[in-house]
Amino acid sequence: MNWLDNVKWDRDGLVPVIAQEAHTKDVLMFAFMNREALAETARRGEAVYWSRSRGRLWHKGEESGHIQKVHEIRLDCDADVVLLSVTQLGHEPGIACHTGRHSCFFQVLRDDAWVSVDPVLKDPASIYK
Amino acid sequence: MNWLDNVKWDRDGLVPVIAQEAHTKDVLMFAFMNREALAETARRGEAVYWSRSRGRLWHKGEESGHIQKVHEIRLDCDADVVLLSVTQLGHEPGIACHTGRHSCFFQVLRDDAWVSVDPVLKDPASIYK
């Protein structure tokens, strides 16, 4: 049995994926993979997601240069969520978010409002030319 | 505008949630919340999820005693994923997984196979009586 068959794909043929930075353990982003994306991620050693908005494989960093080198691929107890341990390349500190921030999770709930607390490390206009 | 209205709920009225342990930064588990679950989580300061299998609110630890104390609630750039910073109570080290393990992500891909690499800390039969 192929290891890809052990994954419980959802009704859209996708699995949710959490990308965690290896050295800081920061949660960087959340995205989806289909079977081909997960196979490609394992083969390349770089994160390849399924872009639901674009309806195609998305080799993270293909435009921005912010490639995610993958050190480890984990699967949860129900076999329906994947956790990647990655190094975020192309900038120091790593930029995983399309807003130019380190992590996509930059909004914190404070006094019943979402507050952006993390800095933009690079202008998105200069990331996506 | 209510902060709950800022969340982009999916077609089932849910949002994916990642629980990360505050002091180790380990990713413990992944689950879903509906609007009421997220409101309850913020109000109690303890994780309350929506159980899709049981079709009801699920106050994490209600059976096992493995409550998740919530320190911080974050929202991602697209406002459609939540990240909790938690302390996993009831056992040291914390047990988040129903298998009695620390984290739900205990299977690692090695040589094209998923290998369980993390120990069972407590027999599930003694957790769920």
From TrEMBL, chains A, B:
It is an enzyme of class 3 (hydrolase). Its cofactor is Mg(2+); Zn(2+). Binds 1 Mg(2+) ion per subunit. Binds 1 zinc ion per subunit. GO terms for biological process: L-histidine biosynthetic process. Its main location: cytoplasm. The keyword Iron does not apply. GO terms for molecular function: magnesium ion binding; phosphoribosyl-AMP cyclohydrolase activity; phosphoribosyl-ATP diphosphatase activity; zinc ion binding. Zn(2+) binds at residues 77, 97, 104. It catalyses: 1-(5-phospho-beta-D-ribosyl)-ATP + H2O = 1-(5-phospho-beta-D-ribosyl)-5'-AMP + diphosphate + H(+); 1-(5-phospho-beta-D-ribosyl)-5'-AMP + H2O = 1-(5-phospho-beta-D-ribosyl)-5-[(5-phospho-beta-D-ribosylamino)methylideneamino]imidazole-4-carboxamide. Pathway: Amino-acid biosynthesis; L-histidine biosynthesis; L-histidine from 5-phospho-alpha-D-ribose 1-diphosphate: step 2/9; Amino-acid biosynthesis; L-histidine biosynthesis; L-histidine from 5-phospho-alpha-D-ribose 1-diphosphate: step 3/9. Its EC number is 3.5.4.19. It is found in: Cytoplasm. One of its GO terms (cellular component) is cytoplasm. The keyword Cytoplasm applies. Mg(2+) binds at residues 76, 78, 80. It holds the Pfam family PRA-CH. Keywords: Amino-acid biosynthesis, Cytoplasm, Histidine biosynthesis, Hydrolase, Magnesium, Metal-binding, Zinc. Catalyzes the hydrolysis of the adenine ring of phosphoribosyl-AMP. Belongs to the PRA-CH family. In the N-terminal section; belongs to the PRA-CH family. This is Phosphoribosyl-AMP cyclohydrolase. It comes from Caldimonas caldifontis. The lineage of its organism: Bacteria, Pseudomonadati, Pseudomonadota, Betaproteobacteria, Burkholderiales.
